[in-house]
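Q&A log
Question type: sequence-to-structure
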Amino acid sequence: MSDKIQQAAVPGGRKKRYLWAARLAIIPLVILAVSWFMTGMPGSSWSGTAPPLSDKEQLIHDNLKRHVTELAGRVGERNVWRPEAMAAAAGYIRETLEDTGYAVNSQSFTSRGLTVNNLEAVQPGQGAVDEIIVVGAHYDSVVGSPGADDNASGVAALLELARMLAGTALPRTVRFVAFANEEAPFFYGDEMGSKLYAVRAQAQGERIEAMLSLETMGYFTDQPGSQRYPFPFSYLYPDTGNFIGFVGDLSSRPLVRQAVGAFRASTAFPSEGVAAPGGMEGIHWSDHWSFWQAGYPAIMVTDTAPFRYPHYHEATDTPEQLDYTGLARVTGGLAEVVGVLASQ
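Response status: OK
Response body:
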């Protein structure tokens, strides 16, 4: 190669190297921007020594423990293959809501030859009555498990939120809904209670502004290394399972941020939030998925279930495994979250 050709070639090669270097430099910035978009939340997660439970929180604690003990202790495993237990769980939920002062509506449907029910209690709005906040939890358990954390914990919190917000004058309507048939083999299917509920709401043109799915939310531990995540979240969140998580898809990101902000502003308990693609592992694993399919913003409130809880879907998922003090603080914080969402 002649000297002239070499001189002409060097600038072009250097330009290509500069372009590749620029592209490589941009990649970390893109990763950081995407990570912030999914995980950046208002406020800061609470840390420090927890104060003693207030009298109000102690009442929540005692009621939560009573509800979980009834559902996962006395009733036990509850699904369509144990119809008496399924009916007993539904009866307890109905009776508790009625004792609080609600009229309970039923959405009945047939599953495996058994009539099962979604149960709904409504706190009417004062002004924006057609704008609806749904707070939901499934009351069935997986085959072979009494389902204390999954999901008597979520149902207990649902019942307590209904009690705490009963008679409250909020602009938007709040619905408290206990769903049948979230567990396999009904998940994603036409006999999934929350899917039937969301499809009906969509068909009737109902304005559901937000849905909170209370799912597996009673186990917390300060043990380092107790928390794991699907890739790539292990690089972004703490390895100690002492927090409550708020989880949504990308379209529900504003709702995730609003819920986390309201929780952190009011509650002395650690919290994390994420808004990620809905198909990622763990992001869609509950009744909020049904509302996404109907076009509604929805999030899951969870202790992250199998990513933390050693008794997930096991016969050992029993009432004594749960942290009722932590669940009481979370439930009190969720009352504030619902209040904020229903006051927009």
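Response note: Residues 1-39 form one domain.
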